[in-house]
Amino acid sequence: MKPAELRDKTDEELRELEGELRDKLIKIQVARATQRATDTAQLPRIKRDIARIKTILHERTLGLAGGAGAAAAVVQEETTA
User: Fold this and answer.
1) Does domain 3-80 sit in CATH 1.10.287.310?
2) 3-state SS assignment for residue 2
């Protein structure tokens, strides 16, 4: 899932999506452990999506609306001040 798609969602939708992805991750891990997994390439993809969601939620709690670009601007301001 692309970060732009995730940024368009509300906090509630992101938390719900994170829960769904965590459930899917557990199911895939169980299938892999019992040697029934068919598409193990989904594991890193799902983990990455969960990390993206958590990053976006954290940015919102910090008030960084623009994401990485805004964070870089804040760091640059602090170094010049």
Assistant:
1) yes
2) coil
**Helices 42-62/11-33 angle, 10° precision:** 150
Half-sphere exposure of 14 (CA within 13 A, CB side): 22
pTM flag (> 0.85): no
Is residue 45 very low, low, confident or very high in pLDDT (cuts 50, 70, 90)?
Answer: very high
15, 45, 65, 74 alpha-carbon torsion, rounded to 10°: 130
Give 75's DSSP letter: H
Which of 46, 2, 53 minimizes the C-alpha distance to 28?
46
